[in-house]
Hints:
There is one protein chain. 41% of the residues lie in helices and 17% in strands. By secondary structure, the chain is α/β, with parallel strands linked by helices. It has four domains: 21-156 and 321-419, Rossmann fold (3-Layer(aba) Sandwich); 163-246, Penicillin-binding protein 1b fold (2-Layer Sandwich); 430-598, P-loop containing nucleotide triphosphate hydrolases (Rossmann fold, 3-Layer(aba) Sandwich), CATH 3.40.50.300; 618-676. A hairpin with a 2-residue loop joins β11 and β12. The longest helix has 24 residues, at 256-279. Residues 615-620 and 679-688 have low confidence and may be disordered.
Amino acid sequence: xxxxxxxxxxxxxxxxxxxxxxxxxxxxxxxxxxxxxxxxxxxxxxxxxxxxxxxxxxxxxxxxxxxxxxxxxxxxxxxxxxxxxxxxxxxxxxxxxxxxxxxxxxxxxxxxxxxxxxxxxxxxxxxxxxxxxxxxxxxxxxxxxxxxxxxxxxxxxxxxxxxxxxxxxxxxxxxxxxxxxxxxxxxxxxxxxxxxxxxxxxxxxxxxxxxxxxxxxxxxxxxxxxxxxxxxxxxxxxxxxxxxxxxxxxxxxxxxxxxxxxxxxxxxxxxxxxxxxxxxxxxxxxxxxxxxxxxxxxxxxxxxxxxxxxxxxxxxxxxxxxxxxxxxxxxxxxxxxxxxxxxxxxxxxxxxxxxxxxxxxxxxxxxxxxxxxxxxxxxxxxxxxxxxxxxxxxxxxxxxxxxxxxxxxxxxxxxxxxxxxxxxxxxxxxxxxxxxxxxxxxxxxxxxxxxxxxxxxxxxxxxxxxxxxxxxxxxxxxxxxxxxxxxxxxxxxxxxxxxxxxxxxxxxxxxxxxxxxxxxxxxxxxxxxxxxxxxxxxxxxxxxxxxxxxxxxxxxxxxxxxxxxxxxxxxxxxxxxxxxxxxxxxxxxxxxxxxxxxxxxxxxxxxxxxxxxxxxxxxxxxxxxxxxxxxxxxxxxxxxxxxxxxxxxxxxxxxxxxxxxxxxxxxxxxxxxxxxxxxxxxxxxxxxx
Length: 689
């Protein structure tokens, strides 16, 4: 039986709340203790909203779910909460797909698309770490994207199927391996990675699905003689515990009688659907669903799993048609009455709430078509995200956090707590409006050239610069154009992979380049105090990206620097621009008045440059980096010879079927060739500005 630790949240930070943080913290805590279901923290950008929430968590002492609207912001929040609570279990829970194309059918063109996805194993590991911590600890903070409302396996099944091992336990090596296979660990004869095991002599080496370390179980006959926790990179023994728990390698699990019952129910549903299609004269659909379901059932009988098994989640879980699926929320604690007993923070709520509202409808429409044309059983419709009303029932007391809360938050909140004053004394940035188009006969050269001129001034003074465009294409083209002008720049948008986004922002903060060009990802929440100048291009193009909310949020990115300023490039003053400028001016006046009253001189935020990708870096990447570091020392005088030797080693590894080593060598060679300039990178056609 799993026992939860009695760990508590210990806030460790060298600063005390300042500005109007103490009042905000006190008001929120009082609201929670009074039983308020919903509250809103209206916090201006850079006022330390995350620190305020951390103080609330430390006082309330409940597991906490933090929902963010994109993976990049979620990663930053996870890093910040880790700094506030270094001894707590702070986890990052987002979709584990680097690439995802859902299963779909378009009747008009008779086009069926199989589900196509590329899973990021490191993010999958972090998802398992999240669910395991929720089942074993109380001091847990999960920072999640909206993926937290999508189906996940039953927590009861997940917890029940753990493999517990202890010193002197009577168990044979074969029995242990059979148990590991039962919980979906894979056997390998090569290097062990997450969710795998290997048998070598009198020991079994296992890498838990949620960890990077290796657990070595040494047998003395049919008894466990020694348990070692080993660093797989250095081979150092980190610990020799008396016992270990291994959770399943997959979240969707069903065993024994329950599994047999589920498969009979799936088969029964299939026969009913086939009969219905045949009665309607839809013979193609009948054959299609029959073949698909029979193949899936065969796989489930053979290996206990099949591709797309989540589509049978209703049967596997024993739920009724229409019942809400199990999700991450199911793993959070409940009180004796069955009510949610945790705290929920909806970050950047003006964006996150509409996302949560919209997830169900899009998924339902796609599933309906698949079911109608015989690609999925009707029960597949229950493999879905939660409806918003279901989400609300499954969360505890909530705090909405935003610099620009929307109508939803204002209408449902029991109280709205305002946090406008920054502890650093920083005030909202100065705003200037300049034309987009250059007028004939004037010296002004238009928004692009003017932005470049202002950016160069800022860079010369040690500042960092943001530019926001209306399209991904323009962001890419502008970044390329700046590079051609010998200005170090990068672009950031939704097509950039999750981990790459985080690395780009980290490199930007470390000043490895000077200008970051983005579309929408630079808007909310990202904490970059190095930014002293922001250029908002085409600010008068009324719409989502240039709404009042978007403009206030973007302007706020310059509020963490004492020299912060913003230029709105516009030929017309739109209503959104006017309201955004008015609200920014209101806050700026209030902040300046507070500073004058208390004798405060604004000072740029000094913030540690953390990077959650350090936690997400794979052993593969570490191996490549470590080998290259060593080789650089050994072969600095003859890099071409090094490449030749590496290529030979790679070919030898392939011949020996050691594909893992071959992959590491392949990536080493690629890096070395790029350094030598032997790999020619095709440039995109340059946009003319």
